[in-house]
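Internal tracking record. Fields below are filled automatically when a chain is submitted to the structure queue. Please do not edit lines marked as system-generated. If the sequence contains nonstandard residues, flag them in the REMARKS field before resubmitting.
Queue: standard
Priority: normal
Entity type: single polypeptide chain
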Amino acid sequence: MRDVVVIGGGLTGLSACFQLEKSNLRYTVIELKRRFGGSIRSASENGFIMDSSAFAFSSLADEPWLPELGLTDQLLPLSADAFIFRSGTESLIRALAAKLPGGRLMRMALSSIGRHRRRFTICLENGLMYDAGALILAVPARYAARMLYNLAPAAAKRLANCQYESIWQVALGFHKRDLPRSLPAANNLGFSYLLSTDYLGRVPDRDHLLIQLALPARADIPPADISRLAADRLGIAAPPIASRAQVTCAPLSIDDLRLIRALLPDGIILVGSDYLPEPPAQPGLARLAQRMEAGRGAAREALQFLKANRRQ
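SYSTEM-GENERATED OUTPUT FOLLOWS
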């Protein structure tokens, strides 16, 4: 019998499992995709290690989980207040997943969530039924709305009203000889942010540069043209040696998140990047530490709920 089921194997969901593992709670994580990490993905191409989404983040030097995950030597300073992972941000996902011997269901779609007596029921689209004492929903608002439609319709309705902005996250690798003398400012080019590094490991050698940028997605621009469009705006005529582009969806707003959480049944905890209260301090810096702490906090909340439920 499972204590907790975690829906969603992104960074926040895995962080919750990490804390559940340390608390000796029985858990299962259910993930729709064949891999963990959500939009966090790193890929190697022609000597460049590129990230699809989360690339840089505020300092994590004092985070206690870095040595626990063996990642202390993975941090590289990008600027005075920003860092990157030496082997790509997905190294954080791999390190977390390696610490989780608990149950996992991959490539599983969830149909609905219900309740039977004092336990939650999770119906999967393949017909399997799971139950748990507590649920952690580490999924975007638009997916949480569908899952909660039957059990908590008022909360589901508010979650469904969350508006999203589609953004292209683009990584480009160039030889420095093909670049302009200096890269222009991001806001002059219509980019949400523009970051770059020539750290060895992320690039083949110091004669190359890896550029990470974001720009609003437009329906009239096909995906195959995004990298070329970004390079043109940067004034770079040469084709990139390596490139990667992925659309991500950032929430514009969720009306009254406290009210949404108050409308959820006790024992269901809603967490994830959609529900962080404050935007990043600087555009392009992912809030990895806050997402990790949100996941750990959700696990602690589930533990307290289970303890209280057992006393009743």
